[in-house]
Amino acid sequence: MASNSKSETFLQRYGYDLLLASIAALYVLTVPYTKVEESFNVQAMHDILYHRTNLDNYDHLEFPGVVPRTFLGALLVSIVAAPFVLTASLLHLPKFYALVIVRMALGCITLYTLRFFRRQIRNKFGHQVEAFFVIFTAIQFHFLFYCTRPLPNILALGLVNLAYGYWFEGRVYAALNSLIFATTVFRCDMLLLLCSIGMQLLLTKQISVWGALKHCTGMALSCIGLTILVDSVMWKRLLWPEFEVFWFNSVLNKSSEWGTNAFHWYFTSALPRSLLAAYPLSLFGLFLDRRVRSFTFPVLAFILLYSKLPHKELRFIISSVPIFNVSASIASNRIYNNRKKMIWNLLFLTLLALLLVSLAGTITSFMASYWNYPSGYALKELHGIDFHHETNEEWVHIDTFSAMNGISRFCESDLPWRYSKEEQISLEEFQQRNFTFLINEHPVINGFKCLFTEDGFSRVRLKSGFPPISLVKEPKVYVHGSLGNQNIVSQNLSGCS
Known about the structure:
Blueprint: H1 2-30, H2 39-50, H3 59-62, H4 72-90, H5 96-125, H6 127-139, H7 141-146, H8 152-169, H9 172-186, H10 190-203, H11 209-235, H12 241-251, H13 265-275, H14 278-288, H15 290-306, H16 321-337, H17 342-370, H18 374-383, E1 394-398, H19 400-404, E2 417-420, E3 437-440, E4 448-462, E5 469-482, H20 486-489
Parallel strand pairs: 1-2, 1-3
Antiparallel strand pairs: 3-5, 4-5
Helix pairs in contact: 1-5, 1-6, 2-4, 4-5, 5-6, 5-8, 6-16, 8-9, 9-10, 9-11, 10-15, 14-15, 14-16, 15-16
């Protein structure tokens, strides 16, 4: 009896965490590879774990990217992951397992901060609202899929979750300090959220200008000093990374070089895709409970301000999802409690339908994402083929497209494999070089035999019957072998036809 009681207590305390963590872990295990947006932090974690103090071998010195990023997030995740990576190395597991470990570590950090926020939701709005919050988070694809991905936005998300929790708890200066940390170290655009929440707190007289200066100036200076100290060493020059990012994106307005979207894009595309059923329900929640308005309106202001920047991506506003989920949970709780009344019963049936539609949307997004990292799968398949290596080194050239769509240093193997990401090599030049294999986006290259292709997601197609949609895939990555190597020529592989 005591054992059952302990088990029940454990599930009551950690059941929601286990549910969300299990879904996030499923995403990691089934879609383990990373894209170009995650490249800096992924390579930084690899280098911290494997090169340690040998900075000359770090990837960022050879491929610095458009703007510099801080090492503090990668350093924190690497410290958490280090014991598990060491164990994997002692077991002689491939480095690929370290990629899974660092992503799991980041997911644990992010979900732990979400747990703190969720407990404040329970304290303020009750257990049922907390339960609906978990349901919405679980059936939304993007939040749990992204929470393990080493993006600057996700490193900032953990601090934003803490800020939301402190805000709900009434510890407003702690909330502001969390946002200051996120802004100065990880994502300068969190300044918009900081200003929106700060202005709301100021107008409602929860803070004063003097109080904010007294409580927050020290945190701002400490964070700036910390990032300058660490990142100046890592980048080998005096540097405050997020200030350079701010200058590049906001002052020079060069972020538009990566694509632009209409002003309304966040409200008509990003939020509907990320929130799914919670989107209309969150708007309903604003009418039902005035308490949630004071938390939601500053976040809406943050998105409106962000919408003025021409370059837009869903991950830029991923930190707004938890607040919208709170509003949607309050609406769902009200509908559920009144479901036996005539009008509310119709709303309850609508709620159930929306949840089912959200689940279907999440499954579709998950399947599309599974096929969205073709070069990672291509390199894994190449490593698995027995070529009877006769030389000490087998050089694999990875083109820019492949480096952006699934391949990181965690995917590399030991001797005889060697890798090159040298850029701006013409197709004609490849046969004059000593590359054994090529992984790139071109189906035909002189001097090389196309060994096999890897399909990637192309588009969603509507069709009659069930399910009403299907995913269209097409060849995205081609793996070539040198015609000068007889072991490669003799391989009976699928080819590229």
